[in-house]
Q: What sequence folds into this?
């Protein structure tokens, strides 16, 4: 699974990165790398079976248990 | 800025089709409202439509004050450079969250009713791959598909309604107006915010409507088509199922399942599954497009296209981690989601409009 993920992300990078370098779009490349790192980290953690906390459950906790704005 | 990122232009008529398909895409999966307002769901839908028209007028007023600008640029002007970015990031989080929540909803539907043993990740990846391909082609391509989506949706719904006619029993609607008031408020709020007012995302798309079209008429017409279709579906499902409707999780799917005309026209639920996939594909594409375009715009990039696959990968991961079970998702949809979305669909645009009017920003409207 992890090898498969590495191959998939390598293909994505090979398609997207060379045009950015060729056209010297360094700003685009920086932002792209940031999101790329986030995507790789998230999917690796998932593949390794790490329990990632759900962001929406965090929102639900704030609305329900802190602000008490939910119905019922 | 926006013109660099997206060169395509859509027509007023295409905007109308987009809005109608978008609204119905949400309706298919928000039938849980029936559990709240029961036989009076039609009342809640009419009230929600009225609320939604008011909100839509608010979005149109904001957009018309700043022609050719989408909500990210409007935030920069209205709230200032720094605080505007904060508000924009909140919006982008909202669009992102709607993208992965909807992806998960489709996943839940497929696992629950169509292919029970498929892993969720396979479904999420396939949905996001299709949407990524579509938005790589730009908004014009999406707008062209919307016509097809709408024709498909209306023909399937009319066909199903005609075939379900023998099974309908309109005495299921009695007694009317007997529920406690809070249920009507809850049902109307949920319906107005979840299926209807998610069209707030069109604040990202208004600048790409060709200048010679007025956005107000097609936008309101699109909402009206969405409303009529939603009302028809809700009335049909309740008339066919009656109070069993509150016990099933996919109302329309179950209603269409009982179609049996002369042992020939049966198994119509496959048609429902097809329009669900087509319309949810359309809706997720629009949300995904808004997210990617907004991210590119906030960082001042020249193109949003390189970001599509990486943000897609993030959406797939989040759609998997977001819930552990279908029960959690339906609790969120029924009791919390409306409050969460109200903040982004009513509170922030409301504040924006008040500041715009108080400070006299933008061009004067005749």
A:
């Amino acid at each position: 699974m992890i090898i498969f993920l590495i191959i998939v992300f390598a293909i994505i990078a090979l398609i997207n990165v060379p045009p950015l370098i060729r056209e010297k779009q360094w700003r685009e490349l920086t932002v792209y790398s940031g999101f790329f790192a986030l995507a790789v980290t998230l999917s690796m953690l998932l593949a390794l079976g790490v329990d990632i906390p759900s962001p929406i459950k965090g929102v639900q906790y704030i609305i329900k248990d802190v602000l008490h704005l939910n119905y019922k | 800025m926006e013109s660099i990122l997206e060169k395509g232009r859509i027509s007023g008529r295409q905007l109308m089709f987009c809005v109608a398909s978008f609204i119905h895409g949400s309706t298919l999966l928000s039938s849980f409202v029936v559990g709240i307002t029961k036989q009076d769901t039609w009342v809640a839908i009419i009230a929600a439509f009225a609320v939604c028209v008011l909100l839509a007028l608010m979005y149109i007023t904001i957009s018309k004050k700043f022609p050719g600008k989408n909500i990210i640029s409007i935030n920069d002007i209205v709230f200032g450079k720094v605080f505007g970015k904060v508000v924009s990031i909140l919006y982008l989080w909202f669009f992102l969250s709607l993208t992965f929540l909807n992806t998960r909803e489709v996943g839940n539907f497929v696992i629950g009713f169509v292919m029970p043993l498929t892993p969720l990740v396979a479904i999420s990846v396939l949905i996001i791959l299709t949407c990524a391909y579509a938005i790589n082609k730009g908004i014009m391509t999406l707008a062209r598909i919307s016509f097809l989506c709408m024709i498909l949706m209306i023909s399937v719904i009319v066909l199903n309604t005609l075939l379900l006619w023998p099974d309908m029993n309109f005495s299921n609607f009695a007694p009317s107006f007997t529920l406690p008031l809070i249920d009507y408020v809850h049902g109307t709020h949920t319906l107005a915010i979840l299926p209807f007012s998610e069209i707030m995302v069109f604040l990202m798309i208004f600048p790409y409507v060709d200048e010679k079209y007025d956005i107000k008429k097609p936008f309101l017409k699109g909402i009206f088509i969405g409303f009529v279709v939603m009302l028809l579906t809700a009335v049909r499902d309740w008339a066919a199922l009656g109070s069993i409707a509150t016990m099933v999780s996919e109302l329309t799917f179950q209603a269409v399942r009982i179609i049996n005309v002369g042992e020939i026209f049966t198994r119509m639920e496959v048609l429902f599954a097809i329009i669900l996939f087509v319309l949810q594909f359309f809706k997720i594409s629009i949300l995904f497009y808004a997210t990617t375009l907004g991210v590119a715009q906030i960082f001042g990039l020249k193109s949003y296209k390189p970001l599509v696959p990486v943000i897609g990968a993030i959406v797939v991961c989040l759609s998997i981690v977001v819930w552990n079970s279908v029960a959690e998702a339906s609790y969120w949809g029924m009791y919390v989601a409306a409050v969460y979305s109200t903040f982004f669909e009513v509170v922030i645009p409301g504040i924006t409009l008040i500041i715009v009017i108080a400070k006299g920003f933008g061009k004067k409207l005749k």
Summary: Chain A has a mean pLDDT of 90. The interface with chain B takes residues 9, 12, 15-16, 19-20, 25, 27-28, 31-32, 35-36, 38-39, 42-43, 46, 52-57, 59-60, 63-64, 69-72 of chain A (CB under 8 Å).
